[in-house]
C-alpha cells in the first residue's frame, strides 16, 4: 500500500470569511476553500486522492502561501499569480483549471467563451462542471467565469463572495492604471 500524501493545512482570515489552505510538502497548493464550506474541500480531497490517500496536519503558513493570499486580499492582486498548484482531476478538468489561471485579473469570461478557448466549444456544461469542481478557489479563479448574459452564476463560496472578489480585482486593476 502506498504511503498517504502528506498535506499541510492552515487558515487565514479575509475580508469575506476564513479561508482554508492545503499544500503538499513541496509547497504546491492542493486545495483552497472557505471554511464554512470546508466539507467541499474534504470531499474533493477524498475524490482526488482516495479516502486513505492523504493525511492532513496543521502547519503555519506552508511555503508562504498564506502570505501570498493575504497580499492578494490586501490589494496586491498579482501575489497569487505564480503560486504553484498541484491537483488531482481529469485531464479535461486540468485543462479548464489551467485556462482559468490565464483569465486576466479583473476580467471575466463566459462559460461558452471558456469552452471555445480550450478548443471544446460544445462542452459548455462540462466546462461549467469542471469550474465547479475546482479545488483551488481564488488562486484558480473560477469566480471570473460568468453567464453568457453577463450574470453572476454559481460560485461554491456563494454569489456574494464572487461579487466581492470581482469588485476587489476591478478596483485594484483600476487603481493600478491610475498610478501608471
Features:
180 residues; alpha/beta; two-stranded parallel ribbon; single chain; 4-stranded mixed beta sheet
Summed over residues and divided by their number, the pLDDT gives a mean of: 91
Q: Give, in order, the helices and strands.
A: EEEHEHHEHHEH
The CA-CA distance between the termini, in Å, is: 56 Å
Structural class: alpha/beta
Rg (CA only): 16 Å
Unreliable stretches (pLDDT < 50, length at least 5) are: none
- The number of distinct helices, counting runs of at least 4 residues, comes to 6
Report the sheet-strand fraction: 15-25%
List how many beta strands DSSP finds: 6
Outline type: globular
Largest sheet features: 4 strands, mixed
Instruction: Give the spatial strand order of the biggest sheet.
Output: 3-2-1-4
Specify the oligomeric state.
single chain
Helix content: 25-40%
Protein described:
Helices cover 38% and strands 18% of the residues. A 4-stranded mixed sheet has the order 3-2-1-4. It is an alpha/beta fold and 180 residues long. The model has no long low-confidence stretch (mean pLDDT 91). Helix 4 (111-117) crosses helix 5. The chain is built from 6 helices and 6 strands.
Amino acid at each position: 500500500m502506498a504511503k498517504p500524501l502528506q498535506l499541510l493545512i492552515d487558515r487565514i482570515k479575509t475580508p469575506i470569511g476564513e479561508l482554508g489552505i492545503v499544500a503538499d510538502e513541496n509547497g504546491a497548493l492542493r486545495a483552497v476553500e472557505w471554511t464554512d464550506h470546508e466539507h467541499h474541500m474534504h470531499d474533493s480531497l477524498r475524490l482526488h486522492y482516495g479516502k486513505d490517500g492523504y493525511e492532513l496536519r496543521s502547519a503555519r503558513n506552508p511555503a508562504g502561501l498564506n502570505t501570498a493570499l493575504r497580499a492578494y486580499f490586501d490589494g496586491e492582486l498579482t501575489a497569487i499569480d505564480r503560486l504553484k498548484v498541484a491537483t488531482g482531476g481529469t485531464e479535461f478538468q486540468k485543462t479548464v483549471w489551467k485556462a482559468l489561471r490565464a483569465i486576466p485579473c479583473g476580467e471575466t469570461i463566459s462559460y461558452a467563451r471558456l469552452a471555445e478557448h480550450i478548443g471544446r466549444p460544445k462542452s459548455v456544461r462540462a466546462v461549467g462542471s469542471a469550474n465547479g469542481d475546482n479545488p483551488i478557489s481564488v488562486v484558480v479563479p473560477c469566480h471570473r467565469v460568468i453567464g453568457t448574459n453577463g450574470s453572476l452564476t454559481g460560485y461554491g463560496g456563494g454569489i456574494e463572495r464572487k461579487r466581492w472578489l470581482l469588485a476587489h480585482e476591478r478596483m485594484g486593476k483600476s487603481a493600478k492604471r491610475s498610478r501608471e
